[in-house]
Amino acid sequence: MKLTIERMAYGPDAIARTPEGKTVFVSGAIAGDVVEARIESETPGYARARTERLLEPSPDRVDAPCPYAGVCGGCPWGALARPAQLAAKEENLRSSLARIGHFSAEDIERLVQPIRSTRDAWGYRNKVELAVERRGNRMVLGMHGTDPSQIIKVDRCPLFERAFPKALKGIAGALSYLANSRDLALERVGVRASRRTRALEVALWTPTGGFPRAHVARVLEDAVHPTSVVRVLTKGDRAARRVVRNELLAGQGSWDEQIGHERMRVSAPSFFQVNTAAAEILIDLVMEALNPGEDDAACDLYCGAGTFTLPLARRSAWVSAVESYGPAVRDLRRNIERAGLDNVEAIGGDAVREFPGDDIDVLVVDPPRAGLAAEAIDLIGGTAARDVAYVSCDPATLARDLERFRRAGVFEPVSITPVDLFPQTFHCETVVHLTRC
Asked: Which residue numbers delimit the TRAM domain (predicted)?
């Protein structure tokens, strides 16, 4: 089937339409391409197809610096020019606000601000994860392919921090060498790097049990000179695997990063934005929206290791910071102590069950992809907060939650700003400033 690609989906695929008007999600194509595609599956509402041949390239098609673009799952938009990527991300946000949030075209035009981004389109990721696969007697480390069951062996990743160009090859080589003598039972390998602090951490995710700690640490130190080598011990089935503990093998035992004016330590299991420079845009937007004063009580829900907590505490009288994930809570407390702050209460637990009360002046929420629970929206609405900053990583759940806020009649959005933290992918962060009605 010959198809003209109309636009990018919120996902790795592009969107075309059949002559009859049915939507087709096409893999291996970008907006503006004319392709010959083969239908792989079909429902009454839509079809999925794979590009067989590029007939006419899009004017926005570029040569990606990664030879695995389109094969590896890490840069599905690698062939799309950066300006077109930014425009597509804005359009995906606008579409979600219209379809799911039921915003009018006039409201969307008024609220959505131009997308913010940093200069680096490649080499921006401070973290990558290597998948592990046994092939006979050999252990192979690499990236997940567009087919998640496929492991792509790579020597380098152009998305990864350019200050450490040989790190991935060195780590994969060292671990493959170690695996020749015994099964390390690796589940995955996390690598974090910072051009600002020169910190490089290797995190080995394994089940509990015996492990050649000293031997592994020595070989990795010889190969890449990391500042930290840790083993993250896990337990349980793959679908419900949990972290038991973080075990120091060599070095600091955590990763060190400079973000804004703060120096933070983050343990391997804890979440931290993969694009440090773009995360600083998020901080600026949150602080601009909340404009906390020295007498204000602030709240940071889903606070992680303290990315927003620390700058809030510098400008507020008090911050209640709530986080449910145990390793992140420990990192948060350590970062508060390192920053010399005594006006933060670090609360471990669920955001709804541990909601700190209604005496709040400003509030920031940075929930996971699933967005806010309905109870959380009710609790936020019941506070005295004058302003809320909502940081979202998913436009669909964001649009749903903004409609819930509007239905509650307590907070309304005054600006919605997309931020490109993930060039070469369809993912996009958004910061929404809500103020009391």
From this structure: 1-53
